[in-house]
Amino acid sequence: MGIIVAKFGGTSVGNGERIKKAAQSVVNEYMKGKKVVVVVSAINKTTDEFLKIVDTAMGKSITDKQLAEVVSMGEMTSVRIFSSTIESLGVKSEYVDPYADAWPVITDNNFLSAKINFEVTEDKSSKIKEMIDEGIIPVVCGYLGKNESGNITTLGRGGSDITAFLLGHCLKAEEVIIVTDVDGVMSTDPNKLLSAKKLDKISVEEMRDLATHGAQVLHPHALKYKDPKIDAKIIGYEKGDLSTPGTEIIGPSNNELLKCATINNEPISVIAVVGEEILTKSGILSKITDTLAKHKINIYGISTGQNSITVFVNKSDSDRAHEVLHEVVVTTDDLSSLSLGREIAMITVASQDFIDTPGVIAEITEPLQKSKINIVEISSSQTSVVLFVDWDDGNKAYELVKGVLK
Question: In this protein, which residues make up the domain named ACT (predicted)?
Fold first, then answer.
């Protein structure tokens, strides 16, 4: 039987009844012959309460080292209660906190947002494997790390999910199960739309983009550590069954951190549609995009201004796009004219790290500025930056951008 890593979030261990249900779900899988490693967050709201007390007592005079030690108490309490509950159900269990000899997660010296030393962590994880092979269920603190000096560190936002996926990789687990307060990933927030439906599957890339734009189910940081060879799913705690179907997380498409630059193979053309204050006129943008969609012309990007809308299409489609959009212009009172511009290249830079990298756009564009390469247009999201430059400058710009990522 393969190894299962089950991570229980703060809500799923929010009180004694939930902890017992969670522990029973682990024991049930163990009784089926499966090997289970548990990762536990702090009991619901525990960390928030600690932070309030610290703020009142000390304010900003607390050091990062002290704060890491204080907030670690939430997870260290959780693992002790959870492990003891498993033993009360008749199965041998041991809690693993940063003071234990079997502690696996080794980091640098950044106390509140530590980087993991993968090589050492993989080596240390062998002790967790030994416990499993002896029939013991390890209950490991999520969110926490330990530096080479033995001091407690924290992994920052999404830390417990990071721990789960990290251990899944190090232990070559069969599956990582994220147990939370929802039954899986929904098509939208069910608190806002009752018509929201649970998704059976979602890719890592989709989940990452969803999470960076506000979905609370899983933090995008954790997805960096998702091994494509390991199954993963998100389930709700209420059923108390780790085998229940939830939302399966597929991928990623490769085993590297998503940090790359790509350039389109064909030139792209710019079409600018102008009209007085068209940004304030409803329905103009939809007329343009609907017309291009009707003629099966793909749009690579859209830029809007007070008096203009610019669309980016394949050069091979540009003459046809120019023609059909001209019909929109001459039949719409709020539009006055359009132009078909020069050929440009599109360079896309993507990384999960962008969301937490201040100045990333400046870092990417600075070498282009120094090389006097004009940027025709730029767009960005929390995980990608798209640059449009003159076609003749495309390859040079691409090489410069790749240099930034090294």
Answer: 273-342, 349-406
37 beta partners: 5
Return the structure tokens found at 379. Answer: 């767009």
Note the residue count of the chain.
Answer: 406
Residue from 357, 3, 9, 6 nearest 160 by CA: 9
Give the list of residues 6+ apart from residue 342 with CB closer than 8 angstroms, or none.
269, 270, 390, 391
3-class DSSP state for residue 338? strand
Residues 379-392: pLDDT tens digits? Answer: 887 678 899 999 99
Give SS3 for 116. strand
Q: What letter would DSSP give residue 225? A: G
Question: Domain tally for the chain?
Answer: 2
Instruction: Tell me the two tokens of residue 161.
Output: 């999910």
Q: What percent of the chain has pLDDT over 70?
A: 96
| CATH number of the domain enclosing 204 | 3.40.1160.10
pLDDT digits (tens, 9 = 90+) for 136-193: 999 999 999 999 999 999 998 789 999 999 999 999 999 999 999 888 998 887 778 8
Q: Which of 212, 233, 253 is the last residue of a domain?
A: 253
**pLDDT, tens digit (0-9, with 9 covering 90-100), for 19-50:** 999 999 999 999 999 999 999 999 998 999 99
Q: Which domain does 89 fall in, by range?
A: 3-253
Structure tokens at 68: 């890491």
Structure tokens belonging to residue 98: 């940063």
- Whether residue 269 sits in one domain with residue 247: no
Rounded CA separation 188/190 (Å): 6
Q: Are residues 291 and 192 in the same domain?
A: no
Q: 247 CB contacts (<8 Å, ≥6 apart)?
A: 184, 185, 198, 199, 200, 201, 202, 233, 234, 235
Q: Are residues 308 and 401 in the same domain?
A: yes
Please choose, from the candidates 68, 89, 74, the residue with its C-alpha nearest in 3D space to the C-alpha of residue 42: 74
